[in-house]
Structures are given as C-alpha cells and as structure tokens.
Amino acid sequence: MATTNATAPKGAPKAKKESEGFTGIKSGFAVIIACAVIAVCIYLFVFGMASNFKGDIGAPFAFLSEAEAFEPAGLIGTVYMGGFVVPIIWTLLFTVIAFAIERYFAIRNAYGRSSLTKFVADIKGALEKGDLVQAQKFCDAQRGSVANVVGATLKKYKEMEENTVLTKEQKILAIQKELEEATALEMPMMQENLPIIGTIVTLGTLMGLFGTVLGMIKSFSAMSAGDGGTDSSALAVGISEALVNTASGIATGALAVIAYNYYTNKIDRLTFSLDEVGFSIVQTFSATH
Q: 81 FRET partner, CA 20 to 30 A, in 7, 98, 190, 286?
C-alpha cells in the first residue's frame, strides 16, 4: 500500500491548480475563423469602398462593380487591387496577432505573480535551510505553473519523509516521478497554439509568394495583349497585386517568426527554472536522508 501511495499522481489537486488563472484559448480553429471573417469584412467594406478609386464606379463598394476598370486613388485602393489573396494573408496576420496576445497572458500567468528568478532563489534558500513550510508558502504566494509543479513536488517530499517502508532510492525516484508528472500536466498549457504560429511562419511567406506569382501573370498577360502593345493599366494592376501580396506575406511571416521564437524562449526559461528547482529538491532530500 505504501508503494502505491508514493507513486500515484494526485489528479484532483493538480487539475484544480491547472485551472487557476488564464490558461489560453483551447479552440484555435474558432480564432482562425473569426480572423478570416474580420479580414474579409475589412477587405470588402473598407478597402473596397468606391471612394478609394478614381472615376464614377456607381456603387458604394468597388467589389459590387468592375473595380479592375478603375484606377486606385491611393494606397488603400492599390491594396484592394491585390486580389483575393490579400484577405487570406490578412487572416494569417490577424491570427498571429491574436495568438501572440493570447500566449502573452497565458505564459505570463504560468510564470506567476513575481519574478521567476527571485522565486527560484527563494525556494533554493528555503531548501538549504530545510524549511519546507516556508518553501510551500513561497509557492502559494507565487502561483503559476512553476509554483504548481514545485508545490506538488514538495508535498511528495513530505510524504516520503513520513514513509517508513520505501528505501531511500525508492523515495528519490518517487519524488522525481512526481516532478515529471506535475511538469507534464503544466507544459501543454504553455505550448497551446504555438504550433499554429509556427505553421504561419512558412504559410504566410508562401501565400505572399503565391500572390506575387498571380500578379506577375497578370503583368505578363498585359504586356502580351494586343498587337505587340502594352496595356499600361492592366500592367500596373498586375505589378500592384504582386507587390502588395509580397509585402503582406513578408510582414506576416516576420511577425510569426518573432512571436514564435519569443514565446519558445520564454517557455525554455521556465522549463530551465523547473529543472533547477527540481534538482535542488531531489539533492536536498538525498543529502538530508
């Protein structure tokens, strides 16, 4: 019976701690759909307004008429001429922004209320003094994923101190297992939606390239139109579409790279802190028992 209690995870308490605070958006697909709706609405009802084009279009919005027959009156009209690829790239861009904001609050909650470096130092200081009660108080005050993992490991530490059946090696293994299980419960929350941002790193650039190719096709078609003449209006439209999509794709990919690397680094720092504190707990038990 003693061995079972030493190795079994405490599901209920951990589930309660994991639910504290903001842990992130679970439905990434719903966020993408919402961003797509916003992107299409902005493209059609803001950038597609007739006032963004020269001449009398005869409709409130350019998409209701042959917008290609009119010259853009400014940058907004030029962006609209980028074609259907523009709202697709905007969907990816808005998705990156939404998940970047979501990850900021989720990982901030995972770090806890105060400086993670100070928390780790306080825990190590309490362990050096053998004051587990104070170490637990630090966890209760800090909260967050690191504090949850350390708190669960300290509880197992106390259980092993009271256990008179297991050997020292078995007790150390039980503490290490508790540390690994508690970490496994917290890590998925920190990495939620990061794979989507990582995918957009490549997808954003590819969509920009796709729009560029479509624009260049229009440009070359304009150059070959007629009897060796060049339709300057159609040529300008094609080049505009190519450049707008190129710029949008590059911006989306760049933002996705920055967000992905930034939050990956934050998670790595948090994981390192967990490993550091966990090692200190195991070494303290090994040295004092």
A: 98
